[in-house]
Amino acid sequence: MSSSPLTPPTMQEVHVWQWDLDACGSHFDRYWEMLSEQERERAGNFHFDLHRCRYVTGRGKLRQILGRYAALSARAVALEYGPEGKPFCTSHPAGWRICFNLSHSENTAALAVSSGLEVGIDVEHIRPIEESIPLEVFSAQEREQFDALPSAERQTIFFETWARKEACLKALGTGFILPPEHFEFDLSVHGDTTPRFVGGEAQEASHWCIRSLSPSATCAGAVAARHHGWSIIEMN
Ligand SMILES: CC(C)(COP(=O)(O)OP(=O)(O)OC[C@H]1O[C@@H](n2cnc3c(N)ncnc32)[C@H](O)[C@@H]1OP(=O)(O)O)[C@@H](O)C(=O)NCCC(=O)NCCS
Question: What is the pLDDT of residue 159?
Answer without folding.
Answer: 95
